[in-house]
Amino acid sequence: MTTQQKPIPSKFGFISTAEEVLGGQDLSGKTVIVTGGYAGLGLETTRVLSEAGATVIVPARSAERARANLAGLPRVELGALDLLNPESIDAFAEGFLASGRPLDLLINNAGIMACPLARDSRGNESQFSANHLGHFQLTLRLWPALIHAGGARVISLTSRGHRFSEVVFDDPNFDRRPYDKWKAYGQSKTANALFAMGLDRRGEAQGVRAFSVHPGGILTDLTRHLTMDDLKGFSLSRQPDGSLLQDPGSDRRFKDIPKGAATTIWCATSPQLDGMGGVYCEDCDIAEVIQGDMTVQTGMAPYACDLELAEKLWTLSEALTCVRI
Length: 325
Description:
Blueprint: H1 18-22, E1 31-34, H2 40-51, E2 55-60, H3 63-70, E3 76-80, H4 86-98, E4 105-108, H5 126-141, H6 143-149, E5 153-157, H7 181-203, E6 209-214, E7 217-218, H8 228-233, E8 236-238, E9 244-246, E10 254-255, H9 257-260, H10 262-269, E11 279-282, E12 285-286, H11 307-321
Parallel strand pairs: 1-2, 1-4, 2-3, 4-5, 5-6, 6-11, 7-10
Antiparallel strand pairs: 8-9, 11-12
């Protein structure tokens, strides 16, 4: 049954934190994978889930950095994964499946933003590859473990940046059109939302539900590729120590990391979402679809919740990854 794309509503909102929305739930016995779970929002997600009793596996490209950031957190395991490398994705998934454990939660959190043009080994543009195709392949490879859990959830982090671009199906990898880092980012984030729709449609009968999450504007390492002109466009300036400062008088609303991780935790654990799936969420609730004014600060573009486009993306993703359920 298709979940309507409109608020439930929940009792949480913009200022809620990850710990608040978890509400003291005991996650003992649950197994979770959080990509990018060793920095920024991912680290907070890992911390909150592990301290609630879950075993959290954190795949990372940089084992040294991940080990340092995760030090002291209980029940956290480290794995090796490069989302731009198909062989690395397969190796990580095969290793997890070999453990025989069910996978209760898969949180596709890792991502890159507004970076210079680069391609993976298959020729796919790096933002579309890392943000969408890599997670598509990982999720499908882990499918048996998700089914084994008997009630798994898959959370894909999207962004309000999905409004920068639809998925351009006739040239997703900028082979013919000029590369635009923001259109590439927007396309990948639209893909995250459409992927959740397609995945939920396929997983519902087997107890696997999927959600996409806009965490809000958060000043994390994701901004590392932004130029001075980019920052001005977001009413930000970079300080001598590398930190970002919001310009006085700006009406943009930014969250700190505990608030930014809240919607991920809500979608992953809230009993309110039992029996639901396939929706885009923000501020700890299901979002509204934007009608007209695309400059508003909340809501999702209609093309990011179009089931026909979700199916078209699924077919394209299968062709580009050579992976199927």
